Amino acid sequence: MDKRALIIGATGIVGRNLAEQLQTHGGWSIAGLSRGRTPAPHGVESITADLASASSVTQALQGREFSHVFFTAWSRQATEAENIRVNGAMVANVLAALGPSGALSHVALVTGLKHYLGPFEAYAKGSVPVTPFREEQGRQPVDNFYYEQEDRLFDAARQYGFGWSVHRPHTIIGFAVGNAMNMGVTLAVYATLCKASGEPFVFPGSAAQWNGLTDMTDARLLARHLEWAASSPEARDEAFNVVNGDVFRWKWMWERIAEYFGIEPASFDGQTRPLENRMQHASHAWAEIAARHSLAEHDIDKLVSWWHTDADLGRPMEVLTDMSKSRKAGFLDYQSTPDSFFDLFERLKRERIIPA
């Protein structure tokens, strides 16, 4: 198999772990396409372009050929209409630049469970499908940039003849710094702040999330899923949910995380207490912790995503995913979610992101 990969978003939580996965297996040449604000992972060639600009992308990719493209990033905009315009253009621009060469074999698109829940502007409004979510449940009758990205992918696949796969993870746990959707790092920073200040480790989310069943996606497992789909005939032209394979309740997981950091979890009284509201003045406290422990990043805003963690933990309904389609197609991988958190926390210590 020709193995020339272009990762859109190679410095993010999914793209970075995908690059590490492809490097582990060997045989891949890997490039990353981004605005160039963050250095590419070791061994990944950096290509710089404004993904929303067709001319910028065309110029950056002129004369380049790739067998596989992995879309692992999105650009957050103020409204869903802008999300649709910008993120749809990102997919269309890259594929218009690379498709005519005839070299493309497979293109993978990472979206998520907002495919079933709707975008942030219309989050869980209207008729939410019965859990666990299954791929055949289809689209919600609302505007959603995931649908626009899919449609641009499908159009290009028909025009240029490559295969595709769509991957729908739940909340992703994995190592990345400066990522807009990173619950694992956010909770690690929050727990560190609580330990330093003596403040209670308060669950910020809803009663539905505290008591209900849920699941998550390890970025390493998602990377393995992406590589599997890129080479498996059973995955060609299919959309898949992708989660770790275990389920839990936050009332149980919150205690495990608190125990890891050596802090006491606060009793949950049923009230939602968003982190974004309570952490507005945490930057000074974090800077002091970073200085005291010689940490690598003193700017808390480059580590946390209070808003996104609040959105995930504040959902008013059960969010649970079915993996039968992947299993039947041959992907039998599994990852313990507690181990996902603890592995991440250990790496954050090694990288001097949180105190050891």
From TrEMBL:
One Pfam family per UniProt: PRISE
Alphabetized InterPro entries for the sequence: NAD(P)-bd_dom_sf (IPR036291), PRISE-like_Rossmann-fold (IPR055222)
The PRISE-like Rossmann-fold domain, residue ranges: 67-355
Keywords: Plasmid
Gene3D superfamilies named in the record: NAD(P)-binding Rossmann-like Domain
Keyword Endoplasmic reticulum: no
Keyword Isomerase among UniProt keywords: no
PANTHER family assigned: 3-OXO-DELTA(4,5)-STEROID 5-BETA-REDUCTASE (PTHR32487:SF0)
Protein name listed in UniProt: NAD-dependent epimerase/dehydratase
Protein's organism: Caballeronia insecticola
